[in-house]
Write a structure and sequence with these properties.
This protein has about 100 residues and is α+β, with helices and mostly antiparallel strands. A hairpin with a 3-residue loop joins strand 4 and strand 5 (about 85-90). The chain has helices at about 20-35, 40-45, 50-60, and strands at about 5, 10-15, 65-70, 75-80, 85-90, 95-104.
Length: about 100
């Protein structure tokens, strides 16, 4: 079954072997270590950029929140969080209007 074993709790569902699981965990840690959230990349983000342009530079946000003010203006805030950084990028009409963040 190519590095998969049968799950004794559910015989119809395969389970990863220890070596494959270790490889998956290592890949996840490696990708987290290669975060695109850097001071240099944040300097590339400027007012007027779209959400897609920001994602191309910084990657997917850790979280996002969308809201509106009096039902007139709606906006989205992307939050990028790592163990050493917190950055918020605010969009109105899919364009950056503000960036703020801490790099430690």
């Amino acid at each position: 079954m190519d590095n998969l074993t049968m799950n004794s709790n559910n015989p119809s569902r395969p389970r990863m072997s220890g070596s494959r699981l270790a490889l998956v965990l290592f890949a996840g840690l490696f990708l987290a270590a290669c975060s695109r959230l850097t001071e240099d990349n944040l300097q590339k983000v400027h007012n007027g950029m779209t959400t897609d342009e920001v994602k191309a530079i910084l990657g997917e946000p850790t979280s996002s929140q969308t809201g509106s003010a009096l039902g007139i203006v709606s906006g989205t805030t992307y939050v990028y969080h790592t163990s050493t950084s917190d950055v918020k990028i605010t969009f109105v009409d899919d364009k950056v209007i503000a960036t703020e963040g801490d790099f430690k």
